[in-house]
Amino acid sequence: MIEITGTELRRNMIKYFDLALEKKEPVVVRIRNRGTFTLTPAIEIRSGKRIAKKTDLEAYLDQPEVRQSILRARADVQAGRVRKFTTVEKLWEGIP
After folding, report:
1. First to last CA, the chain
2. Which residue has the higher pLDDT, 76 or 42?
3. pLDDT at residue 83, as a whole number
């Protein structure tokens, strides 16, 4: 694991991106008054080609049943089949 400052990241950004991507070396960036962050690649390399790597959320949303549920919900909203509420108490009214 490599630990660097935000200033060092700005100076040598490509170097640290390459370390995180190709060498799979964890790069931790400390930024004063902001916190600590870890560089992780959003793509992976297989046999010399870069392949997009899905996040957990993207993989979840790509499931057919989830996609259908979202499309049904959109249709309900467009058709006006919605319930409006102004307080939390009103949200629970009529729910068994």
Report:
1. 53
2. 76
3. 81
